Amino acid sequence: SGFWVVVPAAGVGKRMGADRPKQYLPLLGRPLLSLTLRNILAWPGLAGIVVAVSEDDPYFAHIAEAGHPHVHRVTGGAERADSVLSALNYLAGRVPPETTVLVHDAARPCVSLDDIQSLLADDVSPMALLAQPASDTLKLGASDGNRQVVEKTLDRSRIWQAQTPQRAPLGELQRCLREGLERGAGITDEASALELAGHQPQLVEGQRDNIKVTLPGDIPLVESILRLRYA
Ligand code: C5P
């Protein structure tokens, strides 16, 4: 029993423009993925972690958590959804389809235990994700020649920014991702695959500091949050 965590970590981190995939960039002297795995290993009720890494990844074997008995490695795929599906396929032969799976980005090392407990609370839907209500006013852009102009302003009161973890039962998430990928739908998170199959995952308000490391400027921000967290 207990829940499993899937960590897609097979991306190249193009937007970071660094010499290696962003999940291996050092933050406070430790690879980002190592910080994320250390965080997850402290979640009460954890049964295990499946990390999806690239086939020829030379870095993973060297991080401190790679040899941990709760950490399993699988080969990821071309897109994030392929990487997650590969991890779910590995799990499907080992645990029942009702098993709760949390999918969590390698690039989000700051998620707090409070957020995990909110997501796993008894009264939360089996399909749910951490998300943050939008704080900026959001504009839908349109092309006007070579410029972008405002087509309209969105109703901010209904806009949420999706974070991770995102939770679902193993078997249903596996089916929805497989079918979404077959249809060629652009799937950028687990909830969107569930939505395509007609589900309505619950939005659970998370904290603002659950930042995804994407651009170089995110690194000092995340380092200062981690310094407070682990001080
Ligand atoms: O690019 P983005 O920041 O959205 O990536 C989110 C997560 O998905 C990262 O942890 C990245 O390593 C992972 N990913 C993956 N396989 C891919 C592409 C991205 O596991 N093919």
From TrEMBL:
Enzyme type, top EC level: transferase
Any one GO molecular-function label of the UniProt entry: 2-C-methyl-D-erythritol 4-phosphate cytidylyltransferase activity
Superkingdom classification of source: Bacteria
Record bears the keyword tRNA processing: no
Sites marked Transition state stabilizer: 15, 22
Record keywords, A-Z: Isoprene biosynthesis, Nucleotidyltransferase, Transferase
One GO term (biological process): isopentenyl diphosphate biosynthetic process, methylerythritol 4-phosphate pathway
Pfam families recorded: IspD (PF01128)
Pathways per UniProt: Isoprenoid biosynthesis; isopentenyl diphosphate biosynthesis via DXP pathway; isopentenyl diphosphate from 1-deoxy-D-xylulose 5-phosphate: step 2/6
E.C. number(s) listed in UniProt: 2.7.7.60
Record-marked site positions (Positions MEP for the nucleophilic attack): 156, 212
Catalytic reactions of this protein: 2-C-methyl-D-erythritol 4-phosphate + CTP + H(+) = 4-CDP-2-C-methyl-D-erythritol + diphosphate
Recorded family membership: Belongs to the IspD/TarI cytidylyltransferase family. IspD subfamily.
HAMAP family to which the protein is assigned, alphabetical: IspD (MF_00108)
NCBIfam families, sorted: ispD
Function (record text): Catalyzes the formation of 4-diphosphocytidyl-2-C-methyl-D-erythritol from CTP and 2-C-methyl-D-erythritol 4-phosphate (MEP).
Protein's name in the database: 2-C-methyl-D-erythritol 4-phosphate cytidylyltransferase
Organism: Microbulbifer yueqingensis
